[in-house]
Write a structure and sequence with these properties.
This protein is of the alpha+beta class. It has 14 helices and 24 strands.
Length: 589
């Protein structure tokens, strides 16, 4: 995969420029294993649902020493391998193992947590005690020497191997007695996996090609298999901290995947749509151990914290449904024409329709015709100031999503000849639009959320998302454009902040209280376009692409004043990567 002089860089070469083993770990599509820099070498951890990486250590440190006994430096990082000085490389040997090998004599030092069973010279086992790895093992070929010592609560193993076939394999599960791939075969197999993935990377403008390739790498790197779900492939928000399929994330991730791998995009929607409750509610999260669809699905200690007392309408002692905003039809529409499976689409549209009915039947908690968020988690904007007061919250973004979803359901019903259903969806969309317009505060010049029926002071990006309907009166659209142009509101140096700067709760760094999120920008790009503002839409599209480049990659969220990654934001974030790809493709047409 080396590029010849003068040749156009491959997508893999472009992505490699961003691989630093810190913001972007070394991993493999479908694997839970993550390799990152640590103490003169690397550390090996696993990506697990609802566990911090520091709790998921398989090898605390892995260091390589050359034939002269000196520590080998990590010289190069590529999608398919890490290269140390002296010609030693580290690669994957399938999704559950890594292999270290080289042509000469070298030593691999492993510091592993806990005790080690080293009863055989060719292998040793230990117990990380993780859901994906109750047991781990090293195997070695060409062993010259094995030394085992204790170091506090860890065990340190030094394995010296030699010869063309010399290698050390670190895997999950039991020892491999026979059939272990040679290191060169493992390198070739890993190279093939990434080559196949990058072959699907969509083409874009030259100035966007490097970061698009890296974002495509992020999507591949964030693939995990869910054993509890028949080994379905989920593109998780991040192997660094978000290991599961969140409903909202799946929709945004599918928007980017569809440009190179529409079948994988469909798999994300199939998982998101695959586990509705009896009354049609779609779960917040699908994960190995089940789903998160209610506060009762949370650990006991979290349940009491997350049942928000003080609501004048919702019973704070009852189980609270947990879902995500209704963008299901929006996501499903994006795959039409890319997937030739009418039966799948029929089932998917039926699931979306049942989910839409759930919102009106079970989440209109005050019975006024306008559904509310019963819990911040269901909004996707958990920490927004609109949730600082009482629940439930009637929010203009939810109204907008429901209008768009009913409009899309009406269009689908008309396309299959169901005029009665089309008329029903259209009437409901019109009614929701009328209720949304009642939320407009003309004096304050924004759509005002309501908590437990009371107007809320917070001015946030949810007040801008009604643009998505494409059905607002011109006078309101004009006032919203003024808000986007006002430095005291949403015209920050790097827009669009999720809270207006004039709001008392604005923070440039705190999650959903001011930072820029790529998904909100992408929705506003669409909202401006359908609201008759194509030039404004294109301007925001291009500035969002520049923001991700300026910030150093597809982070979870960005400081709107500096354009840099916010301090607490996760890196290599799935929907930021996917939406960058989507916006880059659109910008290149």
């Amino acid at each position: 995969m080396t590029v010849e002089t003068g040749a156009e860089p491959s997508a893999a070469d472009r992505a490699a420029r961003f691989l630093d083993l810190e913001n972007a770990p070394f991993t493999l599509p479908g694997s839970r294993i993550l390799v990152q820099r640590a103490d003169g070498g690397v550390t090996v951890r696993l990506a697990e649902y609802e566990r911090r990486l520091d709790e998921c250590v398989v090898v605390r440190t892995l260091r390589v020493f050359g034939a002269d006994g000196r520590l080998a430096e990590l010289r190069d990082v590529r999608p398919e391998r890490l290269e140390f000085s002296g010609g030693v490389t580290l690669t994957f040997d399938g999704p559950e193992a890594i292999s270290v090998g080289g042509a000469g004599r070298f030593t691999v030092e492993l510091a592993v947590p806990g005790a080690l069973d080293s009863s055989a010279a060719a292998f040793g086992t230990w117990s990380p005690g993780l859901p994906s790895a109750a047991t781990a093992v090293w195997n070695a070929d060409g062993v010259e020497d094995v030394q085992v010592t204790e170091a506090g609560s860890d065990t340190v193993v030094r394995l010296t191997v030699a010869g063309a076939a010399g290698q050390v394999r670190i895997g999950l599960g039991e020892p491999v007695d026979t059939g272990m791939l040679t290191h060169s075969a493992a390198l070739a197999a890993t190279d093939d996996i990434w080559a196949e993935w990058f072959a699907r990377c969509p083409g874009v403008r030259p100035d966007l090609a490097d970061l698009t390739a890296f974002c495509w790498w992020v999507l591949g790197a964030n693939i995990v298999t869910l054993p509890g779900r028949g080994n379905a492939r989920a593109v998780v928000p991040s192997k660094i901290g978000y290991v599961g399929l969140w409903q909202w994330d799946a929709y945004f991730i599918a928007a980017g995947l569809r440009h190179g791998d529409p079948n994988l995009a469909r798999e994300q929607l199939s998982l998101a749509f695959g586990f509705p409750t009896a009354d049609g509610q779609l779960p917040d999260v699908v994960h190995d151990e089940g789903v998160l669809a209610s506060s009762d699905d949370l650990p006991p200690g979290d349940r009491e914290n997350l049942r928000r007392a003080g609501s004048a309408i919702a019973d704070p002692t009852a189980a609270i449904p947990l879902t995500k905003p209704p963008l299901a039809a929006w996501a499903l529409r994006s795959l039409e024409g890319l997937i030739d499976d009418p039966a799948w689409f029929d089932d998917a549209w039926a699931t979306v329709a049942r989910s839409q009915e759930w919102w009106f039947a079970h989440s209109d908690l005050d019975g006024d015709g306008m559904p509310e968020y019963g819990h911040p988690y269901s909004s996707g904007l958990d920490d927004s100031p609109v949730f600082d007061g009482d629940l439930p919250v009637a929010s203009p973004d939810l109204a907008a999503y429901l209008i768009v979803q009913d409009d899309l359901l009406a269009a689908h019903a008309r396309s299959v000849g169901d005029t009665d259903a089309a008329d029903r969806y259209a009437r409901r969309a019109d009614n929701t639009l009328a209720l949304l317009e009642e939320m407009w505060d003309d004096a304050a010049s924004f759509f005002r959320s309501r908590g437990a029926g009371h107007p809320l002071a917070a001015e946030t990006a949810v007040s801008l998302l009604p643009l998505l309907t494409g059905r607002l009166p011109g006078r309101i659209v004009s006032r919203m454009l003024e808000a986007l142009d006002d430095p005291d509101r949403f015209a920050t140096p790097w827009a669009v902040p999720t809270v207006a700067t004039r709001d008392a709760d604005f923070s440039a760094e705190r999650m959903w209280r001011g930072p820029v999120w790529v998904n909100i920008n992408a929705l506003l790009v669409e909202g401006l376009a359908v609201s008759g503002q194509p030039v404004r839409s294109r301007r925001l599209l291009e500035s969002t692409l520049r923001l991700v480049a300026h910030g150093g990659g597809p982070h979870e969220y960005f400081n709107p004043l500096t354009g840099e990654k916010a301090a607490s934001a996760t890196t290599s974030f799935g929907w930021s990567a996917a939406l960058y790809v989507d916006l880059a493709v659109r910008a290149s047409r």
